[in-house]
Specification:
238 residues; alpha+beta; 3-stranded antiparallel β-sheet; 24% helix; 9% strand; Pilin-like; transmembrane; membrane; transmembrane helix; Type II secretion system protein
């Protein structure tokens, strides 16, 4: 009979846990790594939002220039201002005529239809790469002492607008976005409206704006400088 010998087991060592000092050292290392990571992550996110907003502003300005080339005017200026359905709320955020053909006559809008013979007229919508959204804003900026652009009333006039990539809001801001002019439920997660200033004599236009210009409220969501005098508004003159 063949005998089989089993291998001798290794001597069992007593189980050993982490000491309090080791746990504290580990936690300190993890916290340091997280802190180092956040120092690079947050600026990167801020820079990405800045770049996205800048690119969006350039695209909107290019569309506005096409609008002016086709019609001869900037939105809601000159004879286009008679379009009360689109320009009834004279807000810098109002870009309604970039989405809908102006109607300054008998309610048909035909007077601004594209005319191939004259090379004039409306050939929109011009903001095809942007969702048509509606925002409640004030006609006057800043609308409140905190520099926010929310309407003076929660149920203020809604205008078709384009949002930037910054979702921050000043405390107390009444700015609200909607998917239509009649929907009752506001939507979240959208930025602040881009503002179009067309009048060089407008004393309320943004600092650095040589009208016409397009303005983003920047990361702080405040029009103009904050209480510390910091102004991160993005201004694109054209």
């Amino acid at each position: 009979m063949t005998s089989i010998s089993l291998p001798r087991p290794w001597p069992r060592r007593p189980a050993r846990g982490f000491t309090l000092v080791e746990l504290l050292v580990t936690l300190a290392i993890l916290a340091a790594v997280a802190g180092i990571g956040s120092q690079f992550l947050y600026p990167a996110i801020g820079n990405a939002r800045h770049d996205i907003t800048r690119d969006s502003m350039r695209a909107v300005v290019a569309a506005i220039l096409r609008f002016r080339q086709d019609t001869g005017f900037l939105p809601c200026t000159g004879p286009l201002e008679a379009d009360t359905s689109s320009c009834g709320s004279p807000s810098p955020a109002n870009l309604a005529q970039m989405f809908v053909q102006p109607d300054t006559g008998a309610g048909t809008g035909d007077e601004w239809a594209w005319n191939a013979d004259t090379g004039r007229g409306w050939r929109g919508p011009y903001l095809t790469g942007f969702a048509r959204q509606y925002v409640t804003v004030s006609n006057v900026y800043p609308a409140s002492s905190d520099g926010s652009v929310g309407s003076a009333t929660v149920n203020g006039s809604r205008v078709a607008a384009v949002a930037d990539s910054y979702v921050s809001r000043p405390v107390g801001s009444l700015l609200k976005w909607y998917d239509s002019t009649i929907s009752e439920s506001a939507v979240t997660g959208r930025g602040n409206p881009l503002l179009l200033f067309v009048d060089p004599s407008d004393t309320l236009r943004a600092k650095g704006c040589v009208a016409p210009c397009l303005v983003s409220l920047g990361e702080d969501g405040i029009f103009g400088p904050d209480t510390n005098g910091n102004d991160d508004d993005l201004v694109l003159n054209f």
